């Protein structure tokens, strides 16, 4: 009986040593980075006061959101498409639209976005979000849309 107990003890000891010496499973692959907060979108809208290239206070958050989306999704191109309402001449609105697109581009570049990714598309009053008669100040039309093209979704 003592021999059986000794044999079982020896088997248990050898099994424990073998389990410790066995190679452990490789660590799991790293998790992909977390997406920026909020829903995934391929565009972010920045609103401007009528007649101005400045951004509304709430739109500063939109620029930050655009930068986060650009950093996370690494698009091949970022289109900065700027629009105006119908107040003023179409020529002055095209100039205003160009100024808005350049202001948003500057903000993106200052936040670390590669300037070579950015394509400006000033639209003036030609593509309003809300159609209006001429010389109507429509706040929704005073916007710049930051569009991400050919995004790369993280693997995982």
TrEMBL record:
SUPFAM superfamilies named in the record: OmpA-like
Give the location in the cell.
Cell outer membrane
Instruction: List the biased-composition ranges (Pro residues).
Output: 24-39
Q: Which residues form the OmpA-like domain?
A: 41-152
Has keyword Membrane? yes
Q: Name one Pfam family in it.
A: OmpA
The protein's UniProt keywords, in alphabetical order, are:
Cell outer membrane, Membrane, Signal
**According to its record, what are the GO cellular component terms?**
cell outer membrane
Query: From which residue to which does the signal peptide run?
Result: 1-21
Region annotation (Disordered) maps to 22-44
Q: Which domain of life is it from?
A: Bacteria
Protein's name according to its UniProt entry: OmpA-like domain-containing protein
Species the sequence originates in: Caulobacter zeae
What's the source species' lineage?
Bacteria, Pseudomonadati, Pseudomonadota, Alphaproteobacteria, Caulobacterales
